[in-house]
Each structure stands twice: as structure tokens, then as C-alpha cells.
Write a structure and sequence with these properties.
The chain has 6 helices and 4 strands; from the N terminus they run αααβαβαβαβ. The chain is of the alpha+beta class. Part of the Tol-Pal system, which plays a role in outer membrane invagination during cell division and is important for maintaining outer membrane integrity. It is found in: Cell outer membrane.
């Protein structure tokens, strides 16, 4: 009877042992592929970290600007280049200032909440009345250029100071040339 119990136990255990043997883990090739993939990922992560560290050491990581900070930065750059100079007794814009005015126009189109006053100035030659009119013509030339570039009329105002606000008070040709200008002043 005891032999019978052992025989029955073997009959029950044999399929279980067979099942355990057949349900083996991943093959050697699968294990090797998984190890290779893990090694490649670790190498890629290491190289990415080295690149980030190198950028930080070189100081080339730039701060991400908010839209307000970006607008202020653009405005500061424009304010460093806001003057258009005119020839004697002329109100026409020289082609060398088109790029400057295009930059101002692009900024104003992009930032419709910004406004600009265009100041027209003259040198001291001519009557005060004539210079006021010429300063206004110069400012309106700049205004027309900006309007043609897509800037809204509500963003632009014009004022003429004539000869009242010279930036160079000498009576030389160089001083006169500095005073014949249109200035874009942001509000």
C-alpha cells in the first residue's frame, strides 16, 4: 500500500515537474538583448549628462524668457537704435534706415499694446515756423513708413520740435547733421 501511495505521488508529481521544466525563463539570447539595451540606454544617459555639464561649465545655457521679459529685451534693443537722420532741407527717408524702421515696425505689429511717438527735429537754420513744419514732415515720413509696414495708426503719434531740442548746439555741419532727425520714443 505504501508503494501504491508512492506511485500515486509520482504520477501526480511528474506532470508538475514537467510543467515547471517547460515553463523556463527567457532564453539566453533574450537575456543578452536585454542586457545590451540596458547598457546602451545607460551610455546614452551618461553622454546626455556630460553634454549638459559641458554647457553649464561653458555658460551657454540660456535662461528661458517669459513673453514680458522677451518684449522688454526687444524694446531695449530698439531704443539703442531709434534715430533716423535726414539730409538738409529734406523729409525723405534714406534707404540705409529701412532696416531700422522695419525692426520697429515688426515690434509694433507684434506688440499692439505698445505705442510710439515720432519726434521730428531740425537744425537751427531756417525760420522757427519753417523748421516746425519740416520737423513735422520728417516725423510724418517715418509714420507713413511704419503704417505701410502694417503698424496700426492708433499706435503712432507725431510731434515736431523743429529746432527747439538740438542734441548738438555747435554751428558746424556735423552738428547740423546730428540735429536733423526723427526719433522713435516708446510710451
Amino acid at each position: 500500500m505504501q508503494l501504491n501511495k508512492i506511485f500515486k505521488g509520482l504520477i501526480i508529481a511528474l506532470p508538475v515537474v514537467t510543467m515547471v521544466a517547460c515553463s523556463s525563463g527567457p532564453s539566453e539570447a533574450e537575456q543578452e538583448a536585454a542586457r545590451n539595451q540596458a547598457a546602451q540606454q545607460a551610455e546614452a544617459d551618461r553622454k546626455a549628462q556630460e553634454a549638459r555639464d559641458a554647457q553649464i561649465q561653458a555658460g551657454s545655457v540660456s535662461k528661458v524668457l517669459t513673453p514680458v521679459e522677451e518684449m522688454k529685451q526687444q524694446l531695449e534693443a530698439l531704443q539703442n537704435n531709434q534715430v533716423v537722420y535726414f539730409d538738409f532741407d529734406r523729409a525723405s527717408i534714406s534707404s540705409k534706415y529701412y532696416n531700422v524702421l522695419d525692426q520697429h515696425a515688426a515690434f509694433l505689429v507684434k506688440h499692439s499694446d505698445q505705442s510710439v511717438v515720432i519726434e521730428g527735429h531740425c537744425d537751427s537754420r531756417g525760420t522757427p515756423e519753417y523748421n516746425i513744419a519740416l520737423g513735422e514732415s520728417r516725423a510724418k515720413s517715418v509714420q507713413t513708413y511704419l503704417l505701410n509696414a502694417g503698424v496700426s495708426a492708433s499706435q503712432i503719434s507725431v510731434v515736431s520740435y523743429g529746432e527747439e531740442k538740438p542734441i548738438n548746439s555747435y554751428n558746424t555741419e556735423a552738428a547740423f547733421a546730428e540735429n536733423r532727425r526723427g526719433v522713435l520714443v516708446y510710451q
